């Protein structure tokens, strides 16, 4: 990490903690440089970084001042009240939101993925060319069911970065993470089994269970620390849960990252009850802090964790390159994969392998993380400025989304329909649970680069929220 | 079609019918030209075509002579004797054959797909380049769950060529045909349902049923005309079949093409019993005769047929581009697709769409059909020359495979293992049925271009068969 970045991180901490208040003047570049024993250039770069993040402003001929404390609107409440809405209505809501999310020329705060502007189009293209020029025949032929060998090596490396030691031969490539989750469920469950999921959680996981005749058991999940282990244990005892499906790092929609100590406890818990954990780690590499959070797989001493992930949130949503580390279930999963779609496409796997082998993936992820962090702060400032005072927002340390709480009684489904008229979409809270009532919540993605148009759209959205208050 | 080709087809018919016998002298080019009212060049081209097909030979300073009548070894017998082998042993056999089929540097007569040498590598590459250069952003982004719009238009056209009138909005793109079949089964069946399949048939279909908790009911299928409708009707009555899965054109392993009149009867039958037909048409475009056989979907007046296909057997096995025309089940299938893998990869869909839009697909298919027909005749001649006299071979009018019957009591599983030692693989008959005993059958693919090495491998295989007789 660069020196200026370390310095800037310390300022962010001081601003968030309230040590530095909005309006406070910061030391001059010259003074900062002397105080911290860094070059003036580094001190200057630090202030530019803070300015880009929307936290400080420069006033002409006067210097730098604190502008905004992101913690001001933090503290999104965790409420778990039973949902009065029938499940089929929620299903209709999900379908509606999905259909709207592909309408062009709208500002989609509903999409939990990188915008095209943040993807390495030109470099990825070069990797495809490389494959076509060097392996024209292979690109057209069937890949092995377990997937491209080079890619599996790279995946093993990524999994190692997240704390778990595996070999390439343990990796099976899938059509995105969702296929990985589906395969894991097929390999570990029978119809009628109970499966623990987070609440709120990504509706796709819920629907995957329903399609397989499994019974979802929603476990209260907190914005700061993820799944509630006490509640989970109660359900493990009472409900004979067979499998858990959790997004442990920067989950959707909460953005919560399960603390490392708690991950250990979670693994111990599932080992004690001999339950499998299907761990989804699609956002783990998009951390805003310096260190990548580990996976539960890293603490999995007795092969109870099946790890699922993909490059859909980090590199190429449309390539559908995901993977599964199935442990003991490897042969079963491979057999299922073979029987469902033979193998994943050859060309896209080979291209992603080449992109990773050349270190381009690591470079890209570094830039993407930085951009997302910056965007998250700019969005937060705009929400603070434009939304009612009592609105509270999570402060995720990674990923793409804010979970925004409005005052009790507010209805984000109504707000959603009003916003559509203005060409704006977001994800209303209702679609993330069939058990609990999140009708005064909304999920806002900061995957779109922060532009004047995005700023204006957030202002319009804030006005709509105010008008419904 | 070219004039010489029409002429050559008539000679093939006369040779097959025995009107012209091996050893018979053919009229000189000059005489043929006069008799038929064609140019000498056309007459000459006709003889070259027949020579390429291995049916005639030119003797220096003497002229052309009939060399081989493919009908000589035709008449593969249809026997349906119950299989004494336990099902799990057959499962092990399937796994074994699949594992061997990826060993490099072997002559794989076991692979029912085009060899790389028969695929349009350079032109397909240009289509990928076109997509990358013209839509770099889209190529990385999610495709809609139903798939690329341009591709769906092209699929609608292909389906129309096979006799069924549909619109692009009825098409859903899948990860190959196997995903299409799986989606169709999920949309139309419940656990425990009975599903009629052909016998013998592709083991992948059998396994797809088992994975879904469905009960396969194997229906006797004949090498000439496909499924036995009387047997089918008996099972429809007795067994409460819910769905049928049939490969109607050049099915695997028989290569049978259900005659058009029988297709109509089949559709009437399933309509009468209110049963769905999942029709697999991956080989239909690879016809050796001038006209493409229709699909049952073409006769489907009351929406009982779900059509599944792909380009895996015709253009790009590794692209995993398939499709499903689900009729009334459209919404259900789309929902399942979305929940299983979100969408198919963007880049490969767009590339195939471009390849088709430019007429390259039609040109390629025409060349592929011609090459496959030629190869089938060369292989047939070699099998006739090298295998025991009583060996009989199907004469498919399309596709990739011969179904070869050895004398009763011969065991192709033993022959398979001996062949492996010589670097040769084929598909032993046992793996195509769990009900009937096909242990004296073998499936030989003619997907590899006929080279001296292939000729030698067929000779070796023939020697092995003889040694076991």
From TrEMBL, chains A, B:
<dbReference type="Pfam" id="PF00392">
    <property type="entry name" value="GntR"/>
</dbReference>
<dbReference type="GO" id="GO:0003677">
    <property type="term" value="F:DNA binding"/>
</dbReference>
<keyword id="KW-0804">Transcription</keyword>
<dbReference type="InterPro" id="IPR015424">
    <property type="entry name" value="PyrdxlP-dep_Trfase"/>
</dbReference>
<keyword id="KW-0663">Pyridoxal phosphate</keyword>
<dbReference type="InterPro" id="IPR036388">
    <property type="entry name" value="WH-like_DNA-bd_sf"/>
</dbReference>
<dbReference type="Pfam" id="PF00155">
    <property type="entry name" value="Aminotran_1_2"/>
</dbReference>
<dbReference type="InterPro" id="IPR015422">
    <property type="entry name" value="PyrdxlP-dep_Trfase_small"/>
</dbReference>
<dbReference type="InterPro" id="IPR000524">
    <property type="entry name" value="Tscrpt_reg_HTH_GntR"/>
</dbReference>
<dbReference type="GO" id="GO:0003700">
    <property type="term" value="F:DNA-binding transcription factor activity"/>
</dbReference>
<keyword id="KW-0238">DNA-binding</keyword>
<dbReference type="InterPro" id="IPR015421">
    <property type="entry name" value="PyrdxlP-dep_Trfase_major"/>
</dbReference>
<feature type="domain" description="HTH gntR-type">
    <location>
        <begin position="1"/>
        <end position="69"/>
    </location>
</feature>
<dbReference type="GO" id="GO:0030170">
    <property type="term" value="F:pyridoxal phosphate binding"/>
</dbReference>
<comment type="similarity">
    <text>In the C-terminal section; belongs to the class-I pyridoxal-phosphate-dependent aminotransferase family.</text>
</comment>
<dbReference type="InterPro" id="IPR004839">
    <property type="entry name" value="Aminotransferase_I/II_large"/>
</dbReference>
<protein>
    <submittedName>
        <fullName>GntR family transcriptional regulator YdcR</fullName>
    </submittedName>
</protein>
<dbReference type="InterPro" id="IPR051446">
    <property type="entry name" value="HTH_trans_reg/aminotransferase"/>
</dbReference>
<dbReference type="InterPro" id="IPR036390">
    <property type="entry name" value="WH_DNA-bd_sf"/>
</dbReference>
<keyword id="KW-0805">Transcription regulation</keyword>
